[in-house]
Amino acid sequence: MTQSLEQLRFDNSFARLPTEFYSRLNPTPFAGAPYLVSFNPNVSSLLDIHPQEIYRPEFLAYLSGTQAWPGSEPLAMLYAGHQFGHYVPQLGDGRAMLLGEIRNRRDEKWDVQLKGCGITPYSRQGDGRAVLRSTIREYLCSEAMHALGIPTTRALCIIGADDEVYRETIETGAMLLRVAPSHVRFGSFEIFYYRDQPEQLRVLADYVITQHYPELQDHPDKYIELLRSVVRRTAKLMAQWQSVGFAHGVMNTDNMSILGLTLDYGPFGFMEAYEPGFICNHSDHEGRYAFDQQPGIGFWNLTALAQALTPLISVEAAKACLLEYETHYPAFYYDLMRQKLGLQEITAEAVDVIDGWLRLLQQDARDYTLTFRALSGFDVDENNKNTSLRDMFISRLDFDRWAKSYATLLLKQNVATPARRQQMNSVNPKYILRNYLAQIAIDKATKQKDFSEIDKLLQILQKPFDEQPEFESYAAEAPDWAKTISVSCSS
Ligand code: AMP
Ligand code: MG
Question: Does residue 95 have its Cβ closer than 6 Å to ligand 1?
């Protein structure tokens, strides 16, 4: 059952917290007339919004902050965080506002957050705006991640206007309506630890437990269990990112979700040619957030969270929870790799085969996504040389050697071929958001005000494991012109 925008049930639990946790204020509308850039029907059905609602003028008015959305109680959330290893005592929503929380008919509660909606008390030097380019990237990538089965924030729509926004060049402004079960971050806790406000810390921890970890409410060690759950979820998230070749780009603790969601898409990138040291953010000169650093940084960030929780839990308990990461992360990672290679179980031999495969990809800088996808066509029959797969590699002899060990392992694990192919294709995507695909959609949108490519990509990325032969070209590696696309923090 879908509803009109006015019929939705707002249940604004965060706004009921003491005022130290946020600032109430209203969005600043664009100077120019707002217009719809793209709309995601999957998210509107999540919120029970009737799809026809986008044709009402109120849709644009509420979602661009021109008119107050009945039931909403806009606020900017306060948080701090470690940015590139250094503690910054106050950050907060500098250009986003939580409009409220919508409770849908399945009794799920969804934060609706408007990003790019004007300055807040936490804007510092910023203009409170987001540019169309970066909203398109976040909108498409969050949906792609969701379709890949990776926990993430999502987005209902992009609203544009012709307002000029100044970055390295003049760009156009846009707002993104972001949706998530919660936008609470590691940094939301850190701020009260560093300000020496243990009572606020406790209120926030209780709030997060009641709202998002209700199973822990009556646990005698509920704060320890909260940390334990976040450690587990973060380890899983890191393993999922690594398994699809996703690099976040800015893993500061203010961009780490307390629910283990992928949060705050900036200069992210899906790895194309396999290179463990891949740095997607051109502003990250030291490679702190390089692809292969992510699992370690996930741990570093958890350590920062654990420290922030020490007024509520003992240091020994915090250390014990953190230690579990060392078991969780490799277990999640190798289980995902096991599935990607179509194996039944992880043994020492299986780990060698997985690592050997990744070495092959690295040696020849092969496309991570396409080679994994092609691997489902692997034939264990010795008479079959797996020519099309083999031809993807320059070092054929290395491939042959590896292929022999893989075939032996598949036979030993008794994996039936047709079932393996199907299973592998259900975990190795054919379509990912390559930078050049996003760039084509961005260029059309910014230069010609043609938003059709955004909708098309959204549709393709919502089914990343399907063959979709009509969109075959969207699976291709980046063309030469796109090899130099540079992605920075500017958004
Ligand atoms: P980010 O790196 O995008 O996660 O942002 C880090 C901090 O800077 C957060 O507090 C953001 O709200 C803030 N911020 C980023 N861009 C802007 C902007 N254009 N205006 C105001 N605040 C911003
Ligand atoms: Mg952020």
Answer: yes
